TrEMBL record:
Organism superkingdom: Bacteria
The protein, known as: HPr family phosphocarrier protein
Residues of the HPr domain: 11-71
Length: 79
């Protein structure tokens, strides 16, 4: 994994950690807690499309922030 992917994973996890909402990525039949750096390291290994699921008290703000951080790192998600 490149340093760019490492930076993206840390940035994604740190951004997600700012919110109370549950933030999960779905890829095929896998669900990954975005707040888990380990989960992201084992999942974000290719340029696939991921589906973003956000549920909780600050879900609108969390969803917006996650879309921005994924776009910043050139990763594709469906919200």
């Amino acid at each position: 994994m490149t340093n760019n992917k490492n930076a993206a994973i840390v940035d994604i996890a740190q951004t997600a950690g700012k919110f109370k909402s549950s933030i999960v990525l779905q890829f095929d039949n896998k669900y990954i807690d975005v707040k888990s750096i380990l989960g992201l390291f084992t999942t974000l290994v290719s340029d696939n499309d991921y589906e973003l699921h956000v549920h909780g008290p600050d879900e609108e703000d969390a969803k917006k922030a996650m879309i921005e951080v994924f776009a910043k790192h050139g990763l594709s998600i469906k919200a």
